[in-house]
Amino acid sequence: RYRMGDGNPHNEDGELLPVDIAKNAESWGIKVLKVHTIEEFRDAYRQAEKSEQAVMIHIETNLFGPNPPNCSYWDVVVPEVSRIESTQQARKEYEEALVDQRHYWKQ
Predict the structure, then answer these.
(1) Handedness of CA 74, 63, 38, 58 (dihedral sign)
(2) What is the per-residue pLDDT across 16-27, written as a single tens digit (0 to 9) for each?
(3) C-alpha 72 chain-centroid distance
C-alpha cells in the first residue's frame, strides 16, 4: 500500500498512490497472471513454472485480511562492497545461493 508522504515518506495516513503493479510489470514485458482463488493460483503457478519468460502471479489481498504472516519473498541483495567481515561472508553466501535460482530473464 503505497501512500503520499507530505514530506514524510513513512506517513501511513496519506492518500494512496495510483500504482498498478501488474500494469507496471507488463510494461517490462513480464507476463501477468491475475488470480482470485487458490485453484486459480495453483493453475497460474503451474503455468509460470513451465514458462520460458518471466511471470508475475498477481493476487489482490486485503492488508488487514486473513493473510498468512511472512508469506512473501523479496530479494534484498547483500552489499557487494563492505569492510565488515560478517557482511563480506553474507555476500559470499548470497552469491553461492544464486546458483540454485531459476533465471527468468533471457537476453
Answers:
(1) negative
(2) 778 888 999 999
(3) 7
Q: Helix, strand, coil % (nearest 5) of the chain?
A: 30, 10, 55
pTM above 0.85, yes or no: no
Q: What is the mean pLDDT of residues 76-89?
A: 91
SS3 at position 55 = strand
What is the per-residue pLDDT across 35-69, written as a single tens digit (0 to 9) for each?
Answer: 998 899 999 999 999 999 999 999 987 766 666 65
Residue 78 CB contacts under 8 Å (≥ 6 apart), including other chains: 87, 90, 91, 94
What is the secondary structure of 9-53 as a DSSP string?
Answer: TT-TTSPBP---HHHHHHHTT-EEEEE-SHHHHHHHHHHHHH-SS
Cell 486473513 locates to 66
Q: Quick one: which of 64, 54, 57 has its CA closest to 104?
A: 54
Burial label, 99 (beta-carbon count in 10 A; 0-12, 13-18, 19+): exposed
